[in-house]
């Protein structure tokens, strides 16, 4: 009897060890992402928009040095989170015409650079609104059902991690166009309420594990500092950061309530504090430059202004928090993901 118990104990330990070796990915089959340029891996490439980056020096630190349509020198958070989950080193863009059904199984990103929660944001920039991204998600699930069956589609809905990241373009740009209808506080509240509505719609479509990124300190990106931060001081723009804080203050408790109301897990992922601390204390994280981007002069260069003809692009992008005048470098993204994701991912397993 004792030998049988010992044998059972050894089998149990072996099974547990094997499960650990398989990694956390054993319970997360796919990563599905919605949002803006922070998460876009190439969905804007074939859109009639000026917000593109599928040309050098974008992608100079991406494997093979390819400019894939990621708004950075290398990979972006959707890639890094997919890697963290043990799924893949990069996450494909749903609009990539070369995608095969098999490529969809570990997830995709529907994110489109320049979009926002406010439908006007996508309209102004001629990009894919977050609401249209939900329509593409329905197509995605239909394709999974068609090629791999209802059971696989349900597995993806029940167990995948769904990430939503937006608001920066709304706050930094569209507010000015909407200022006849809203003041700063009411517009931030409108965006937060729209984010909650988006999560409800995503949950209705079957998503069970949803993480929503907070707004970032958008007043501290180099472009805003150059335009609104003072000619000589180029400081962070406090009114913009205060709008981001108001958005977060409205969103966080609303998502907490939603988490209690709906089945599954709804997470508020706070990236504001980490990025703000990185910008204020770059050396603490191993960075040298926080107030300008690596590409071009780093003050205004973005999209087509960040190009291979610009002679001022830095050679050591890992020393910079920002790649262009708006978007962080891969290394900055990696620091954020490493600092935050373990804390939040433990809640979705």
Keywords:
11 helices; 349 residues; 5-stranded parallel sheet; alpha/beta; two-stranded parallel sheet
Folded structure, characterized:
The protein has eleven helices and seven strands. The protein has a five-stranded parallel β-sheet, with helices on both faces. The chain is of the alpha/beta class. α2 (77-84) links the parallel β1 and β2.
Quick structural gist:
With 349 residues, the chain is α/β, with parallel strands linked by helices. Helices cover 44% and strands 9% of the residues. The protein contains 11 helices and 7 strands.
Question: pLDDT below 50 for ≥5 consecutive residues: which ranges?
Answer: 5-26
**Broad shape:** globular
Q: How large is the count of helical segments? A: 11
For the largest beta-sheet, the strand count, sense and barrel status come to: 5 strands, parallel
Query: Which class of secondary structure composition applies to the elements?
Result: alpha/beta
Global mean pLDDT: 91
Number of strands: 7
Gyration radius over CA: 21 Å
User: Per DSSP, what share of the residues sits in E-state strands of 2 or more residues?
Assistant: 5-15%
List SSEs in N-to-C order: HEHEHHHEHHEHHEHEEH
N-to-C CA distance: 36 Å
Helix content: 40-55%
Strand order of the largest sheet: 2-1-3-4-5
């Amino acid at each position: 009897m004792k030998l049988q118990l010992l044998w059972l104990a050894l089998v149990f330990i072996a099974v547990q060890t094997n499960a650990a070796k398989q990694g956390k990915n054993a319970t997360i089959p796919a990563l599905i992402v919605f949002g803006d340029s922070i998460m876009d891996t190439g969905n804007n490439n074939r859109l009639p928009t000026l917000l593109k980056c599928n040309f050098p020096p974008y992608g100079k630190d991406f494997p093979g040095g390819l400019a894939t349509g990621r708004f950075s020198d290398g990979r972006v958070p959707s890639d890094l989170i997919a890697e963290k989950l043990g799924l893949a080193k990069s996450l494909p863009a749903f609009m990539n015409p070369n995608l095969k059904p098999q490529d969809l199984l570990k997830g995709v990103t529907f994110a489109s650079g320049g979009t926002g929660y406010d439908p006007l944001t996508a309209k102004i920039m001629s990009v894919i609104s977050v609401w249209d991204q939900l329509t593409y998600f329905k197509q995605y699930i239909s394709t999974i059902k068609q090629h791999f069956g209802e059971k696989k589609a349900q597995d993806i809905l029940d167990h995948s991690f769904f990430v939503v990241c937006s608001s920066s373009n709304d706050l930094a740009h569209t507010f000015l166009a909407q200022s006849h209808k809203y003041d700063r506080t009411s517009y931030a509240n409108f965006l937060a309420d729209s984010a909650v509505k988006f999560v409800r719609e995503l949950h209705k479509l079957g998503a069970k594990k949803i993480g929503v990124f907070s707004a970032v300190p958008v007043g501290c990106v180099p472009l805003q500092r150059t335009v609104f931060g003072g000619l000589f001081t180029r400081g962070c723009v406090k009114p913009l950061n205060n709008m981001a804080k108001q958005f977060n203050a409205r969103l966080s408790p609303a998502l907490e309530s939603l988490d209690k109301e709906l089945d599954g897990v709804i997470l508020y992922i706070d990236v504001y504090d980490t990025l703000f601390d990185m910008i204020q204390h770059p050396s603490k994280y191993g960075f040298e430059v926080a107030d300008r981007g690596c590409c071009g002069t780093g003050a205004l260069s973005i999209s087509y202004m960040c190009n291979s003809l610009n002679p001022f692009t830095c050679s050591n992008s890992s020393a910079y928090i920002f790649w262009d005048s708006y978007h962080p470098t891969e290394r900055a993204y990696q620091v954020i993901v490493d600092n935050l994701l373990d804390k939040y991912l433990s809640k979705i397993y």
